[in-house]
Structure to design on (225 residues):
């Protein structure tokens, strides 16, 4: 009887000591399924955060350029460009605040700041209305003059005169501000589809705001507003 009890106890202990191979495989499968569901959602959250942070940085830069222009009584601008050092490295967006009297190409390397990784300028494909979502003025970084020449990675600028008004030329007065001086720069992440964000210079006094992608276009035939 004693031997039978010991044998029974050993059998009971063995059956409860761990998972069988099939049970382990089922657990691994469940973990894999949950991971496949959670990882894309987590990455999407990170990308949206980076997009929101980048548009916030550019709006801050626009406001700082306005403030510097009014304080120093001279035109200031924000220069923005998407760059890629090599084919193996991801694209990044750099921007700099500086007096309009200094062409971007002459700025020290330390003048440039970068936006969040993976964020790009939405300026390659027209929207369904045939318009580009980015409408800031393109400039020649060597001369700092407006250009219509097509380039792979154009440089854009938001220019403010000595009173902080958005202008087309550095010496323009606020009363000379035209719709050409206003504009939008739209940002996106390649893995977010149409989840776009934009910074808009919306009034002749230089009011800026952040917009987002909409399903219907505005009166300017753009979807980010």
């Amino acid at each position: 009887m004693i031997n039978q009890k010991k044998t029974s106890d050993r059998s009971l202990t063995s059956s409860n000591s761990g998972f069988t191979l099939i049970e382990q495989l089922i657990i691994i499968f469940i973990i894999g399924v949950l991971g496949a569901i959670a990882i894309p959602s987590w990455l999407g959250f990170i990308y949206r955060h980076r997009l929101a942070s980048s548009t916030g940085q550019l709006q801050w830069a626009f406001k700082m350029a306005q403030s510097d222009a009014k304080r120093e009584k001279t035109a200031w601008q924000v220069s923005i460009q998407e760059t890629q050092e090599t084919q193996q490295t991801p694209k990044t967006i750099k921007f700099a605040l500086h007096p309009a009297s200094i062409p971007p190409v002459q700025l020290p390397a330390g003048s440039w700041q970068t936006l969040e990784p993976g964020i790009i300028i939405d300026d390659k494909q027209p929207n369904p209305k045939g318009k580009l979502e980015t409408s800031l003025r393109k400039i020649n970084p060597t001369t700092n003059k407006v250009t219509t020449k097509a380039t792979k990675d154009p440089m854009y600028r938001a220019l403010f005169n000595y009173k902080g008004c958005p202008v087309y030329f550095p010496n323009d007065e606020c009363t000379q501000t035209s719709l050409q001086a206003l504009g939008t720069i739209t940002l996106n992440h390649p893995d977010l589809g149409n989840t776009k964000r934009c910074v808009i210079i919306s009034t002749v006094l230089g009011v800026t705001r952040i917009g987002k992608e909409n399903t219907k276009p505005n009166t300017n035939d753009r979807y980010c507003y």
